[in-house]
Write a structure and sequence with these properties.
Strand order of the largest sheet: 1-2-3-4-5-6-7-8
Number of strands: 8
CATH class of the largest domain: Alpha Beta
Bound molecules: 3-methyl-2-oxobutanoic acid
Number of domains: 2
Shape: elongated
CATH superfamily of the largest domain: Phosphoenolpyruvate-binding domains
CATH architecture of the largest domain: Alpha-Beta Barrel
Radius of gyration: 26 Å
Number of helices: 13
Distance between the termini: 44 Å
Order of helices and strands: HHEHEHHEHEHEHHEHEEHHH
Amino acid sequence: MRVTGGIGLSPNCTGGKMSITSFNGGQPSSARPKVTTLTIQEKKHRREPITCLTAYDYATSRLVDEAGIDMILVGDSLAQVVLGYDSTLPVTMEEMLHHTRAVRRAVKSALLIADMPFGTYQGDATEGVRNAVRFVKESGAEAVKLEGGDKRVDLIRRVLDAEIPVMGHIGLTPQSVHKMGGYKVQGKDLAGVEQLVKDAVALDRAGVFSIVLEGVPREVAAMITEEVSVPTIGIGAGPDCDGQVLVFHDILSLTFAPKAKFVRRYADGAALIRNAVEQFRTDVETRNYPSDEESYHLPKDTKAELDAILRRKQLKAYSR
Ligand code: KIV
C-alpha cells in the first residue's frame, strides 16, 4: 500500500486492504509489436517515415511509447532540458544510466536508444566499448548513439563486435560545440558537403543501423538519404530524410528559450503546467482544496466507537 506523494497511512487505518494509490507504475501494456533495428531498416525499404522522440523519465516515455513512436532516444540533451546545463557536455555516464533505466521501465514497444555522453567514447576505444556495454547491461538500452563520422569507424566496429547496434550522428553534433565555434548548420559549402557525404558513407559501411543528420541543409540531407543504405533520421535536416527526431521538451514548449527554426511546437506544456500549479496554489491558499470528497473517512463502526469514547470523555469532564 502506498499513498502517492509519500503520505504513509498505518495499515490499521484501512485494514491494509484499501488501495489508495493513483499511480499505476511498473506495468505498461503494449498493443503493438516490438520495434527492433530491423523494423527501422525495413521501414526505409518500404519508404515509410520513421518517428523518433527523446524522453528521459518514466511518465513521458510511457506516453511517447503508447503514442506509437518508433524509437525513443535518451538523448544527452538531458543535460540541458532536464538538468539545466547550458550544453550537453557536463552530463555523466551515471546520470545517463539513471535516466535510461527509468525510460526502460516505461517502454514496451519502441526501440530504446541511449546517447553516449561526451568524454565516454572519444578517447580510448576499449573504454568506449565498455561504456556502450554498460548501457545495455545496466540500463536496458537496445542500441547506443554516438556523434562523429569517419573518425568513429573503428570504435563503431568494435561496439558492433560487442553485439550492440549503433546509431550514428553527423552534421551539427552538439558535443563538438567548441570545435564548431557554436551551434552552426554544417555542410554549407562544397568542402562541408563533401565531408558530410564521406562521413555518412563511412558510417553506413561501418554497419550503423541508422544515421541522425542534425542541422544540415535539406539538399545535403536528401543527397545522403539517397546515398546510404540505412535510414537517415533528420533533426533540422528537412523533410527528405527517412525519419525525423525532435526533443520532447521542444515539441511541448518546455525549454524556456525561443524555438529553433526546425522545431514545431505541438502544445504549450509550459502554460498547461503553470496554470495547473497556480490553480493548486490558489485552491490551497483559499482552503478550496482538499474538499470533503477528496478526504479519507473513518469506517462507520470506527466512527461510532470513537464518537462514543469522545462522548464518555465529555460527560466525565462535565461531572468533575
Ligand atoms: O541528445 C539529443 O537529444 C540528440 C537528438 C536531438 C538527436 O542527440
